[in-house]
Amino acid sequence: MEHDIKVNRKELKYYIPYREYIILSKLLKKIFQKDKYSKEALGGYLVRSLYFDTIDDKSYEDKVGGIEERSKYRLRIYDPASKSVKFEIKSKTDSMVTKETAIISRDDAEEIQKGNYEVMLRYNNQVLNKAYIEFRKRSYRPVVIVDYLREAFFYDANKIRVVFDRFLKSTPLHLDLFEPDAILMPQLKNDIVIMEIKYDNFIPMWIKQLLQIPSFERSAISKYVIGRLDTFGTAI
After folding, report:
1. What single string gives the DSSP state of each residue in 67-87?
2. What global pTM score does this model have?
């Protein structure tokens, strides 16, 4: 298995019209590098996550309540046939986002989504041990699958990553991360794209101008929250 990955960064998120996404994507292809997962035929790649929350929906309530220090837990894949799975803890403190990742086997991911959290302890892994304690203490359980099509670019000189997420869908039912024919419901209009800019220190002015950041309204977007709108509300 791969080693743990820990990333600290800042994130800016925007809803943008699909037509603007097409323009920006063409511009970035000339300057930025494409993500290694990208598939030309798809115009990106699949991202599918199974999110966990407590019985009283602490992660959801912390986000919508604007709590500054909060965490969420998920399993993530990029292909339903994948043999390895990312277990991720994503935490936010003020403006800083920390993502901790452990790589686990497909078999153990299947056990975790069934509620058998004991398999986390097999790895003697700091990320999984921390998650195990929280899952047992607060009675976490799987609540929703969210997937979308992502096109991603990165600019290595400033460690800047720009992603465009389209066709976001979710389901609170049949929570099998690996089901290739999973039926998920669209949660955003097809002409709405989520643009995220992830960076370590700062964004150069020329990149801000290229991405038209001043013309877009920043939003506190959470794909997890959007994914649970069938339970809690309606999307834009």
Report:
1. -SEEEEEEEEESSTT-SEEEE
2. 0.93
- Report H helices in the chain: 18-31, 58-64, 106-113, 126-138, 205-210, 223-227, 229-232
Contact assessment for residue 5 and residue 209, using Cβ atoms and an 8 Å cutoff: no
CB 179 within 8 A of CB 188: no
Report how far residue 40's alpha carbon sits from residue 222's, in angstroms, rounded to the nearest whole number: 27
- Residue 197: closest CA among 168, 182, 228, 219: 219
Classified as helix, coil or strand, 34 is strand
pLDDT score of 4: 67
Residue closest to 12 by CA, chosen among 150, 235, 202: 202
Residue 6 amino acid letter: K
The total number of residues shown for the chain amounts to: 236
- Burial group, residue 227, by CB count within 10 angstroms (0-12, 13-18, 19+): buried
Q: How far apart are CA 22 and CA 68, in angstroms?
A: 33
Token match 């993500």: residue?
35
Give the list of residues 6+ apart from residue 192 with CB closer than 8 angstroms, or none: 15, 16, 17, 18, 236
Q: Which parts of the chain sit beneath pLDDT 50?
A: 1-2, 234-236
Amino acid in position 17: P
CA atoms of 153 and 199, how far apart (whole Å): 12
